[in-house]
Amino acid sequence: MSQHTAENREPLVHLSKRPTIHPVKSALIRLAAIVLGLAVCGLVAFLLIEKIRENPGKIWDFYNAFIKGAFSTPRKFWKFLRSTAILLGIALALTPAFRMRFWNTGAEGQTLVGVLGAIAVSFYLGDKVPEGVLLMLMLLAAMLSGAVWGVIPALCKAKWNTNETLFTLMMNYVATFLVSYFLVIWVPNGSSSLPKMKYGKLPAIGGNDYLLPILVVLFLTIALYIYVNYSKHGYEINVVGESVRTAQYVGINVRKVIIRTMILSGMLCGLVGYLIAAGMDQTVTTNSVGGQGFTAIMVSWLGKFNPLFMILTSGLIQVLNQGAAQISQDFNVSGALPAVITGIILFFIIGCEFFINYELHFRGRHGRAQAKKEGVK
Amino acid sequence: MEKALALQMRGITKRFGSVVANDHVDLDVYRGEILAILGENGCGKTTLMNMISGIYFPDEGQIFVDGQEVVIRSPKDAFRHRIGMIHQHFKLVDLFTAGENIVLGVKEEGRYNLKSVNAAVTKLAEKYGFHLDPQKKIYDMSVSEKQTVEILKVLYRGADILILDEPTAVLTPQEISRLFDVLRRMKADGKSIIIITHKLNEVLEVSDRVAILRKGEHIATVNTSETNEAQLTEMMVGKKVDLEIDRTMPVNAAPRLMVKNLNLDDNEGLHVLKDISFTAYGGEILGIAGIAGSGQRELLESIAGLQPVKSGEIIFLNPKKDKPVTFFHKSMKRVKELGAQGAFHDGKMQPVSFDGMSTSAVRKWVESGDVLFKEDEIINLRDKTPLEIRGLGVRLSFVPEDRLGMGLVGSMGITDNMMLRSYRKGPAMFLDRKKPRALADEIIEELQVNTPGTNTPVRRLSGGNVQKVLVGREIAFTPKVLMAAYPVRGLDINSSYTIYNLLNKQKESGVAVIFVGEDLDVLLALCDRILVINSGAVTGVVDARTATKEEIGLLMTRTERKEDA
Amino acid sequence: MNIWLNFLIDSLAFGATFMYGSTGEILTEKAGHLNLGIPGIMCMGGAGGCLMLNLIGKSGLPPFLIVLLGILASLLMSGLMGLIYSFMTVTLRANQNVTGLALTTFGVGLMKVIMSKMDATVYLVGPKMFYRWPFAGRQDALQCLGVLFFLAIIVAVASSYILFKTKVGLHLRAVGENPATADAVGINVNRYKYVATCVGSAIAGLGGFYYIIDYMASQEAYLSLEAFGWLSIALVIFALWRPHMTIIGSTVFGFLFSCSSYITNIDWIHVTMAMKPILKMLPYVVTILVLIISSVRNKRENQPPSSLGLSYFREDR
Questions:
Q1: Which residue of C has its CA nearest to A155?
Q2: From its phi and psi, is residue A148 left (phi > 0), alpha (psi between -120 and 50) or beta?
Q3: Strand-pair category, B271-282 with B192-197
Q4: Which of A174, B487, B541, C180 shows the greatest Cβ crowding within 10 Å of its Cβ?
């Protein structure tokens, strides 16, 4: 009789945290999430894109465009690699902070001031110093600006435990308006659009404009992987992230680690800003980073703060972006479509983590399993 | 007894995986009585009560309230049957006032009006003899005030059956006696009170009947007036256990650590440690006994350099006179510093000076063994950070109470946890995992740590294995002083004995061991001397070979009345 | 009318956008969820309303009904966005920051796709007079104010009342402060989180609708909406998590944001073009200062809800 009541009262679905999961299983769950997400994208495309609504057969062109967008021509492929590199670069910069559980939402601003710093140097000193010196000075300015932008919230966090998520978030907008301030000063005609700088352009390696940023980020990936996993600093970051009390117990200076790590994080954001400024745009706008600072947060998180996994997540997001851009071109729809598609896929990837972290037990099955166990006894 | 039955449990069984926490427990509770549930740690007391209060759902068995069978699935259901539990860890919203916490989740007729709630709370408090300002915020409250709020929260919901889980663990003796007065008043009011405890004196003082649980089974229920401490102990632990800890007499005990007039205030300016003085000797185990929260944690943390003390001295004595200087625990920088201070002689009582010598020449000289200490080293650890203490060459190990929150990093494997103290060694930027891995393997083998591998996060290990890893690491540091706070809490008997043996071995090798414990039997069997503290002050030091439990118990609750009044 | 009074009223009217946004965000944050999806939600609230107006704008329905249906569509659309967010963060226990950012990416993008296809001459004409009731047709600054503006103030005040004076509010705050405690006293934590997030999102979405249809009433309005979503999140900090404070805060923010265009008209203040971005930066700088000051003072009542950003799983106790 008691058995009967217990059966009745148990909730339909019971959740428990999984202690471990087989890597193949988790990979399959993630893959399934992406496939499902793509299916939903197709549905949304059907609703939003008239050409597909009129001719549902065109849905295959829709999916084909994802491949086409990033891989159909060498130029597109190089563009894909470079945009992946930039996104990955910012995500890498965020990673040490995230591993310390310092929720830096300010990569957008930290990168933007990096761009600004580099362009400022080239604006004021462009014709006064040799190109090589200029490039070095730009790099220094970019990294310094990024570091300053990153360390301000860190100082407040270390001293007064100021909420870093909100602080860094606000710093993004301060950076944006700082850029518009300089644009007003630099562009006398009031258009706020700064023409491309004549000086301070990273050299093309073997005639390939795209290669240098890619190589820099590739190097950064490996360096950061080693830094977080094998260096003493990386170890301290992990200890502080896991438990501040443990860190104090073993004599780690927590404030110092927070400040040092955020200087690093901001500095690397500044470095990516430099790559954008000197390697791609040659100019600065309020949109130079284009929201990638926010996307990078997701890249880093989805990559489990592991630099090597992050190559995959940033690549995936750029495939989606370029594919969706291709779609908006092919089907003549708004240029905002990539954001919609990226958003949908992200929902599925973020959501599927639940099935990796938790196990669902349904009432019926659980009961039977229990009965079986007891039968064995 | 002619009293009416309030609550009956029949055949209650609860399993967690393969562990049976409660095995067919039958229990009766009457109206207007205080029932104590007595048992050792891990005997299933709390689990049993959690099933009445709706935290767990029993696998088997029935619960009757007032003779009616009931099903309790959630705390809400429990409240509906007028059952309320006061948990050991308070569940209060810090930011709210007492009144707001008390009314939280209560469905009442009419409009919500905090004023009338506060009035009702005040009235209820007065009825049972509590003193509580319902408008005071929880974060401004002492532990005992918080407990009062918890009790009133349950009473406000109209509970007739109150369950208190280890309510005295965090209270001072005065607060305990005040609490017991309140409980008696509630009993007179016809309420049933169940108090979970493992302290015999409290059972005898306050309860009407005692139910004894052992390893998940209900052994017996007896009337308090018809029993005594010896009988209860025997029922609680089964056979009369003699703790067979091989205790040797201290050999060549020399002072190692001297604490003098140590005072410590917490953030809010309350005196946590009051004028504490004692000496720990190398080659002995010094026990520290006291009610939980009497300042044990703060004392150890101040010695370890984790708490900034207000006044007093913490002195580490190193009997180094005429012994050679080594680089084993002294850095080159430190050796040079001491040399400049004239702390060394060359064996012929001539002072050693490193002036104008290159680092390699100094190293050569020191390693030749001809540089000797002039005097015993006397190092004041006060106001030093853990890192500075280590830099001074003081080998001080500390096994903190909070193993995974402080002593170890839960998400890291054993290897990475081994590095916690030593990873800084050497000028390299990168970690050397070779030695820690070897150490991890050594500890796993010697202490029989049950783990799938050296990289399995220690969080996934059982409590006993976690503690072996932590103690193993601290001992591997070859300490001169080893402090351990509640090192066997939550451990099974076998693991506990592993730990006792480790501590004993350390003592025999000349280490000054400081052992903070809660079980007086263990303290008496393991230690050489026992320091008793109460409310942050030393109330006595006894010889563990001759002292009795009663004697220590008395010291634990003794208060300096002159100062208090 | 005096230029300063004009300015004040315009700041108020402009500020109503953030008033909606931050009131909605406060309700969500009080349940322990930092919703960085607010910009996307506000955009979708605007898009939803406009979509409805576009459908029925020329249908000949009574203007009153058209307005009402527009508002309802806006509430529905942003409420749906809130539902996505709460499903992800409450039921699936996903990371709140990441989910919120994804929602903003999605919402802003989708709004742009929807709005770019719509005909502003349909959704902006017709019922306009109704939004500005009872000041419609006046020649002074008061004509800026209307039904949706007053609704914003009512919503902010009512939210404060509910949060701080009712049992529901007490329970909601308990959920945000300490979900385990709330759970233990029998409060349905997940239900509170869902309802607070969805209602909060719906309110925020109305802010987007208000901005496009009422305050700006222009075809390009939707392009700048995202920035005001972020500003709304900043305003939550400025208001120290008290909805009624957003009335003052949003006026200040509106003032700072639009003062650049006013100050240039006053001859005794010399304002260069370069000052404009600096003035626009001020709301964020002020927010940062508020954040720092409140952390330095460390007054418990002015801190973010304790469990903000953490998911709740009962068996983690």
A1: C292
A2: alpha
A3: unpaired
A4: B487
B565: tokens are 């009044």
Q: Look at residue B2 in the predicted model and tell me its pLDDT.
A: 56
Give me the pLDDT at residue A12, please. Answer: 67
Parent domain of A201: 76-332
Q: Is B456 on the interface with A (CB under 8 A)?
A: no
Note the CATH number of domain B5-237: 3.40.50.300
Q: Are residues A98 and A143 in the same domain?
A: yes
CA angle at B276 for the pair B275 and B281, rounded to the nearest 5°:
150
Confidence of residue B517 (pLDDT cuts 50, 70, 90): confident
* B20 reaches A (C-beta below 8 A): no
For chain B, which residues make up each domain, given as ranges? 5-237, 242-318+381-395+479-565, 320-375, 409-477
Look at the domain B242-318+381-395+479-565 and name its fold: Rossmann fold (3.40.50)
pLDDT category at B243 given cuts 50, 70, 90 is low
pLDDT (0 to 100) of residue B191 = 92
pLDDT for A44 beyond 70:
yes
- Given pLDDT bands bounded at 50, 70 and 90, which one contains residue B3? confident
Chain B touched by A3 (CB under 8 Å):
yes
Residue segments in chain C with a per-residue pLDDT below the cut of 50: 317
Domain contains A6: no
**Is the CB of residue C137 less than 8 Å away from at least one CB of chain A?**
no
A249 and A345 in one domain? no
Q: Residues B507, B284: contact at Cβ < 8 Å?
A: yes
Q: Do A308 and A342 fall within a single domain?
A: no
Report the number of distinct structural domains present in chain A: 2
- Model confidence pLDDT, tens digit, residues A7-25: 445 566 777 777 778 889 9
**What's the pLDDT at A7?**
42
Amino acid at position A269, single letter: C
Residue C270 is predicted with a pLDDT of 66
Residue with token string 């562009």: A187
B neighbours by CB contacts (3+ pairs under 8 Å): A, C
Residue A351 lies in a domain: yes
Instruction: Determine the Cα–Cα distance for residues C86 and B391; give it in Å rounded to an integer.
Output: 51
- Measured CA to CA in angstroms, residue C194 lies from C179, C182, C189, C306 at distances of 13, 15, 9, 18
- Do A90 and A297 contact (CB within 8 A), yes or no? no
pLDDT band at A2 (very low <50, low <70, confident <90, very high): very low
